[in-house]
Amino acid sequence: MYSEWASLSAQITANSCGAQCFSVLNKFPASAGREVVVSVVKQLGTNLGITQNAEPSHLVKDEEVKWCMDVICFGLSLPLQEHETIKDCVNVYCEWLTALHPQPRISVPKPICEDANLYARQIINHFHNLFVPRQGESADTIKRQAVLCHRVLRTLQQTAQISQLMDRQTWDTLLLFLLAINEILLAPPTVKDDVGDQLCERVLSVLFEVWLLACVRSFPSPSMWKTLQESCAMWRHRVALVDQWNRVNLALTARLLEFSYGPAFPQLKNADEDGQLIPIGMSNDCVAQTWYRFLRMIGNPTALCSPHIISKSSHFVQWALTHEKGAETHQHPCLQQLPQIFLNAMKGISSQVDAFLGLSKTSLIGLTGGGARNAISSSSTTNAGSTGTGSGEGSAPAPAPTTPTSTSGPPSASSSINSLPLTSMGAGVELAVARPKCNSILHVFHEWLFEAAHIGGDTWRQNRKKQACEASKRPSSMIMEHRKGSISLSQPNSLNDPQSLPPTLTIDKYESGRAEAIGTLCKIFCAKKTGEEILPVYLARFYMALQQCLKITESRECDETLASILLHSSDLFRLDLDGINVLLPGFIAALEIVLPDKDLKLKTQSMVFNRTELRRSAINILLSIMVLPLHYQTLPIRDLTCETSEKMFTFIQLKSRLMNILMNALQVETDAQNTHMLLGGLLLCVQDAVTFEETELGGGNANLSHNSSGVQHHDANLLSSDNAHALFVRATYLVCHRLISSWKTDLNVSLAALELLSGLARLHIRETDALECKRAVKWICDYICYQCSRPPPAHSKDLHSTIVAAFQCTAAWLMQHPYLLQDKDCLQTVLEVVELGISGTKSQSKGTDIPKFKDEKELKPASMRVRDAAENLLTIILEQVGYFPSECGPESISSLLDELALMKHCNSMVPAAAASSEQAIAKFKYFVTENSTILALLEEPLGNDQDPQPTVTLLIRGPFGRHAWTMQLRHLPRSKSGIKYHAINPGRPIPMNDVTQRLDSEQKNFPDGVDKVQPCVADYSIPTTEQMREQYGTAVIRELESLLENQSIHEKLAWAEADTSADSLSHAQECVPPTVCHEFHAARLFLSHFGFLGFETRNPQNPAEALGNPTQRPLIVLDTKSAAFAADLDRLDKLSARTHDSVYVFYVKNGQTSAQQIIANMGEESSASHDPHFASMLQTLGWPVQVSEHSGWTGFVHNSWSLKGTPEEQLKSTANELNYNGSQRVLYWADVSSEIAFVVPTTWNLRYNSDTCDSGSISSTDQIGSSNVWTRGETDSAAGLAKSKSRNLSLELDTNRRDVKEPVPPTRRKGNVTKPTLLAQAPAKIFLVWLESYEDYLNFPLEDLLAYTRTGEELQTQQLPRASDCHVIFVHSLLSGLLRVKLQGPPGRMSFATPLVDGMVLSRRVVGNLVRQTALNISRRRRLDNDNYQPPHVRRRLKVQDIVQKYKMDLSEADLLAHLFQRAI
Q1: How many beta carbons lie within 10 A of that of residue 714, not counting itself?
Q2: What is the full DSSP assignment across 212-224?
Q3: Considering only CA atoms, which of 808, 816, 760, 696 is closest in space to residue 1299?
Q4: Close Cβ partners of 653 (under 8 Å, ≥ 6 residues apart)
Q5: Contacts with 714 (C-beta within 8 Å, 6 or more apart), sequence order
Q6: Can you tell me the distance from the alpha carbon of 757 to that of 874, in angstroms, rounded to the nearest whole number?
Q7: Strand partners, 957
Q8: Residue 348 near residue 249, CB atoms below 8 Å
Q9: pLDDT at 1256 (0 to 100)
Q10: Is the pTM of this model over 0.85?
Q11: What's the chain's Rg over C-alpha atoms?
């Protein structure tokens, strides 16, 4: 940079020599000169005002002043024993220098005040004598010399700061003087505790600080800058040089960033004293010029790796020549600090790179404090605690020791690994949005960083000789042949002779600095923005450096360089870097060292770093390359250095190695967050393999693509990773085993493992092994048993959350594999676990125990929400396994029939009267059983039933939905009901008309022989007629006799009449069957037959059944005459039996930051310019459904879960196929326990939300917190119109997609079941955002877009969603066709769910499936974490109980039976 300018080194030498010869006293004996100095200086010192009041100087002429200065110049060179005299000399000169101050001291001679600059230059030159090291002095005298030097330096620095009189010549003299004293103190080899060692840091700091002042007051000439560079090259063996260089560079960089990138750019936070380094008034242009010149001041830091270069000065040569045993210059002990100095230099450069990237950290202070603290500090260029773009507030560093200590060995605790961020860049450290381009940073630092990254590598060893020759001609190398003690590279052989180096300076000792350099390069390249171009030459050099650093030794140990690369390369494979995949084999080899082994083999035990963070960074890299083998398949990967194809890999050959890394890493991982990430990656792999085999291979053998390359792998377990089925088996076994053995106590890991198992259950693999599925279910059930059996102190909210999630996971497996319930052992295992969840114990603890029946057990479930989850699983087993989806389609697990629909099909219902649900309800009788199920009974047969049997139609509304049944009481099965069993002419014979003669006989009351029996006493107890006549009189007996006579007459007349009537035997007619009965009390028959009318009898001896306690009625009658009954019933029907969620999809074009722009992208005119992959992703999220025909969740409360017709005005199809805003179409997906709607908002959503917010309200009669009771004014009329149309009772979905239904476990519950409460938190808002430019996620207008995402539930929760509570899934399409994922959400223990992980790279084949699973799992975790959440079936049960309390009729048993005989209206 200054090759055309002359150096001032000769002038510095001349000034140094001249100062010692200036005084005439040098011509006399030393004793005479000393006496003169003592007497003169003592007199001058008395006038300074130190010991007495200051007086004006008696020196009034120039000659007088010059004579005294001649004496003082000699005095400053006296031996240190004359300390007081030297001190007086220093005091006099320091006082006289105040002539340059705005207010000179009174003791300053008049000639000096009149020509202050002239005399100041002489004084400054004379001061040189003070700094000359004295030989053979004691440590005490050396300390005294150091004190006086400090005084002089402080005076000179203060004068430079406040003086307004200094001219350019004086400034140059001052700078040259500072260079000279640094030269005389620092150029010699470091000797512990000599004056140079004690003053090293101070003289350097004064030099740099005064130089910065000069840049403002009198900018140094190019010759001066060149001299500074040459001088610094002579001091590079001093630790303090690099420390002070870093300090100044960072202070200048902070100012440079302020005016270059504005106040919004992250501020570089330095120590307070470092912030004052830059003088006030330094212009922006001056800052830029000074920054660049200071940056280049010490030359190429890689020269520090060559002790031969550093030790080629004359001072080292002199030491080598005078060494008693003879030694080479590079063997001086002080050079053992070079590895540490090199590391500090690299740290400084790394700090500046971080500052330009916006990674400003408080730990940068640690680099600028200087001294030995840096040699042992673990502070770094990137602080662990800072993850944001803003700089943190840091405290000033501890005072630096004035005496740097030299170490005899390589730096140990100063490993660069310890300086790396705790959060890898891909996972949490945000870069500045306005950061410069990578090319710009590389233009400044590339030469040093690339060379440092190659140090010790094969390329470095091969090219060392060539580089040495070039360095001698390169100006930036600071090699000047004509300089005193010049450094020459004319002996390349000695430079490459490692045998002559001491063991502490071999090239491997510089690995810490090399690791810092390659880590810095990785950070630069990972800062690439979307669409940014990086020069190919930089990419090529970077790839070469990485390949050299990633070479694995035979010992397979992790060194600092490898760790540094992994810690800083999280984003490398997800940035569209051209040709980055050539490094894939190298990175996989590195991952095989770090991830699969529990105990990482370290090259040196002195490496100090966070192993968990290293594994996390490695996992981030693994997640970004997992899908590459199936994406590129047989595409070859070229070797950078090998021209032949012998070592050439194809992508598909790497798949098995990646799978083994993943499986083994999951086997040994102990950190919860790392395990969470690995589980997400595992499901991605299995899902991608399954989908690949289904689509690309048509379900054939996946091994075809593997074997086509003809290359045999050395891996022993290649077979286990080849196809989807093998992966499925390995994943299931591994996760179940670890879940039982080591993950069961960690909430997040347990949830992630159960989410993965649920995802595995949903996969459709042709070769699925029933035994594997059975084993998985058995393991999950064992997990539930273990969690429930833990001691009471361990039972917490988190524990119960894992149990609930395990029940949901079990339901997922049974739904997808219904054949498991055909297995007796599996069925028993599942039902035992259900029993355990509901009651708290099993009826049989062991197989040999006697079962304990339900009535004998005390119900003590682990918690109420565990019981609810077990009830839900039991209901799914009994009602849904093998039957979902029903004829209604997956959009509903309830019947699509209600009272109105049934009455339309009744014979007695006039069609015109079917418009009102109240009229339809009046035809039904309503009963409640078990306080949780409403039975609506219709006693009329439907119109399609011609068989007059006792028929009852039931609508059963329970906790798990609404179901319709029709029952008939039949005495014969339907197959025989057509046989006529009453013929018109039975074919009997004609009866005979002969009437038999009837004999008249006298009736006897007693047998004939009764009179012969001897009567006993008992016979006389019955009085005879005569006795009665005697007792009661004759009249009574006469009346009785007349009655008997009259009766006899009537009987005779009746017989006569019968003989003459047509019905007599003589006139007999043929038998005719009675008319068929069409009137039945069908409801009474049904209730009686099904045991609902078995009234309980009291046991007076049982206190529980005392008369004060009413018996539990099996039936409760509801009063349907109330006008509000129909509305409450409708509200119950609006409570879905499944969880429901919404995901809002947005498309963000490049650079868009406003909500209006993003919403406008979904307009018809803008949708044509979308990425075509966006539309295909939408189609994989769910099924497109027409809102007007949809009976499930639509994303809006007011029109969900209602029975709809197809109004003509809504049948118009929209022109925009991506219009899924909910007005006409929406994307929908459901399984047995969850519903999810994907809404793509447009401007309609904002208008709709504003309308509904005005008209919507919460009914005051409904107190169930999350029931969907938000109604609109026109609901009734609209419903009437809709229901008057013909109803399609099945959801017409694509039949090819219907078999891709995947059950997802449901929810979580509140603390108290019996007390209805409002939700404690609003439903989770989940956004899916497609980014054209990845960096736009930083400016995504989340708050503004919330207005487009209202569902109507906000009114019920009395709480609007906040942006801080929203979860955002960003998806960015890479040029390779893969997709990069970024997750953003509220901080918390359960924020992020699997399978998507922040930073993961996906294949387009699986993005829809994984996004949907992640959204469902996020919502499920949010429910699990909400103490007040109630599962859907609990909300429905509470709503039923609410209806019972409002409408129950207190009927006695007799009234109830009478009610059954009454007809409905």
Answers
A1: 6
A2: HHHHHHSPPPHHH
A3: 816
A4: 629, 706, 709, 711, 713
A5: none
A6: 20
A7: 934, 962
A8: yes
A9: 42
A10: no
A11: 49
Which residues does residue 938 pair with via DSSP β-bridges, in sequence order?
953
Q: Quote the CA–CA distance of 966 and 902 in Å, as a whole number.
A: 11
- Backbone torsions φ then ψ of 1449, nearest 5 degrees: -110, 125
Distance CA 871, CA 875 (A): 6
Q: 594 - beta bridge partners?
A: none
Tell me the backbone φ, ψ of residue 956, rounded to 5 degrees.
-105, 115
CA distance 603 to 557: 5
Classify residue 605 by its DSSP letter: T
- Output the CA torsion sign for 1218, 1221, 1224, 1225: positive
Taking the C-alpha atoms of residue 824 and residue 957, their distance in angstroms, rounded to an integer, is 32
Residue 1420, classified by CB atoms within 10 Å of its CB into exposed (0-12), middle (13-18) or buried (19+), is buried
| pLDDT value, residue 1228 | 93
- DSSP for 174-240, please give it: HHHHHHHHHHHHHSSPP-TTSHHHHHHHHHHHHHHHHHHHHHHHSPPPHHHHHHHHHHHHHTTT-HH
Q: Which residues pair with 942 in a beta bridge?
A: 906
Number of residues that this document lists for the chain: 1465
φ, ψ dihedrals at 1448, nearest 5°: -70, 150
| Average pLDDT per block of 10 residues along the chain, 1465 residues long | 73 64 68 75 70 68 81 81 81 83 80 83 82 73 81 86 85 88 77 72 87 88 88 83 88 88 83 76 89 87 76 66 63 74 89 86 44 34 36 36 36 34 45 88 90 77 62 46 38 44 67 88 91 92 89 77 89 90 90 85 68 90 92 85 65 89 91 92 92 73 40 39 82 91 88 93 82 91 92 88 94 93 92 91 77 80 90 92 86 88 74 66 88 89 69 91 88 70 60 68 77 81 82 84 91 82 61 70 86 68 49 78 87 90 92 89 76 88 90 86 58 58 90 92 76 44 35 33 32 35 37 39 80 90 87 70 86 92 82 86 93 93 86 92 90 84 73
Distance CA 344, CA 239 (A): 8
The residue among 873, 1396, 934 whose CA lies nearest residue 1135 is: 934
Report the distance separating Cα 384 and Cα 609, nearest Å: 11
Mention every residue, 6+ apart, whose C-beta is less than 8 A from residue 1257.
Answer: 1270, 1271, 1355
* Token pair recorded at residue 273: 């004293």
* Residue 1179 CA to its chain's centroid (Å): 25
Whole-number Å distance between alpha carbons of 1239 and 1196: 10
Distance CA 727, CA 705 (A): 16
Q: Which pLDDT belongs to residue 337?
A: 79
Strand partners, 573: none
Distances (CA, A) of 1256 to 506, 771, 1016, 1198: 79, 53, 96, 9
Residue with tokens 């490898």: 562
Report the DSSP beta bridge partners of residue 1335.
none
Per-residue pLDDT, 325: 64
Whole-angstrom Cα distance, residue 102 to residue 88? 24
Which class for 676: exposed (0-12), middle (13-18), buried (19 or more C-beta within 10 A)? Answer: buried
Find out whether 763 and 745 touch, Cβ atoms under 8 Å: no
| Residue 737: C-alpha distances to residues 734, 1412, 1447 (Å) | 5, 27, 53
CA distance 767 to 756: 19
Q: What pLDDT is recorded for position 1368?
A: 93
Q: Are 1344 and 1152 in contact (CB under 8 A)?
A: no
Cβ-count burial 307-321 (b if 16+ within 10 Å, e if not)? bbbbbbbebbeebbe
Beta bridge partners of 1371: 1330, 1381
What single letter denotes the amino acid at residue 257?
A: L
Give the pLDDT confidence score for residue 587 in this predicted structure. 92
SS3 1398: coil
How far is it, in rounded angstroms, from Cα 8 to Cα 753?
A: 71
Q: At what angle do helices 560-568 and 511-526 cross, to 10 degrees?
A: 10
Please give the C-alpha separations between residue 769 and each of 241, 567, 692, 807, 817, in angstroms, as whole numbers: 69, 40, 20, 22, 11
